[in-house]
Amino acid sequence: MIQDPGGKSEIIYRAGLLLVGSNVFMTFAWYAHLRNLADRPWWIAAVITLAVFVPFAVLYMREPIKLDYLWAALCLVGAAYFVFRSHS
């Protein structure tokens, strides 16, 4: 039988279960959020995402503000448009 010094496999197992559980929870939370957002202006999701991401990248990650953020914003707005547009 293989010995596990220090019980590392149990720690890895627990961390894996927590990761899977948190991903399942966040998936349900995200899609419930999108379902409820369908009645509101679609661009709000892109604005909120950028309002969180850009300060985090600049202040915490110490990344310089780049033109790439503008392109990312345009992609997010385009994605939100195609997700929330009317299919009639």
Task: Please describe what this structure looks like.
- The protein is flat and about 55 Å long.
- Helix 2 (43-60) runs antiparallel to helix 3 (67-84).
- The model has no long low-confidence stretch (mean pLDDT 80).
- Helices cover 75% and strands 0% of the residues.
- The chain has two domains: 1-37; 41-88, no CATH class.
- The protein has helices spanning 8-37, 43-60, 67-84.
- The chain has three helices and no strands.
- The longest helix has 30 residues, at 8-37.
Keywords for this entry:
about 90 residues; mainly alpha; 2 domains; flat
Note the main sheet.
Answer: none
The number of helical runs is 3
Mean of residue pLDDT values = 80
* Low-pLDDT stretches: none
| Annotation, overall tally of beta strands | 0
Structural class: mainly alpha
Q: Please provide the ordered H/E string of secondary-structure elements.
A: HHH
Q: Provide the helix percentage.
A: over 70%
Shape: flat
User: Rounded to an integer, what's the Rg over CA atoms?
Assistant: 20 Å
Strand content: under 5%
Distance between the termini: 63 Å
Number of domains: 2
Describe the protein's topology.
Elements: H1 8-37, H2 43-60, H3 67-84
Helix pairs in contact: 2-3
